[in-house]
Task: structure prediction
Amino acid sequence: MHFFDTAIALTPAGDDRFRGATSPAYANMVGPFGGTTGAVLLNAALQHPARLGEPIALTVNFASAIADGAFEIEARAVRTNRSTQHWTMLLTQGDEVAATATAVFAQRRETWSAPEAVMPADLPRPETLARLDRALLPWIERYDMRFIRGGMPAEFDAQEQPDSSSVMWVRDEPPRPLDFASLAAICDSFFPRIFVRRRQSVPIGTVSLTTYFHADAAMLAAQAERPVLGSARALNFRNGYFDQSAEVWSDAGALLASTHQIVYFRA
Result:
């Protein structure tokens, strides 16, 4: 199996319960890469036999650092309406809650549609850019990242930048067809904005991450294994927390997802 599919693999463990384990291929500074944590929580709802429709929203709250090893997820549909289905997910290790999540699934119907956000224009194609080749952490090796601007600093020299914006092409490494779980993980693949803005290594940790899925399964299938374009920025750094907002686009210019998170930092 692909590294990613191994990382989000779940085994049914009774009503509304699944068992999984962290993957060393997606190890982060402390515990696993948050993108795979979000993806495996979403996967519990995706695999649940009661699931209806496709995800339109996912919020993950990181209650504590997740230890390497086994975990359990409880996924429960708490309300099903005519067009939406609401889920809660709880990830535990032993007797401790490590992460909580909510998700909304929907039955999309053909209706009036009109995009307002516009993909950045006149950008170099991914094949013309060099891949980030520094083995910073295991999870970074699982992505082919090609930065147009705002990449991870070659060194933390404390030369503060005027903003924290980044634009990059990114895909799974090795290539893997895009689906909702991998898109959820890619939405957390942007380096912490404080690293880009201050060019300093400081302790950080995502507290809460929300992703909105604008694509349906057909749009993701059409994207296949090709790189997507990601753009990220922060709006504010204040008193130990900063936000991080991002968009992920297909290579044809369709908005696939938007994401927002709040991050703790100590500086």
Summary: The CA atoms of residues 165 and 253 lie 19 Å apart. Residues 34-47 form the longest helix (14 residues). The helical segments are 3-7, 34-47, 138-141, 180-186, 193-198, 217-223.
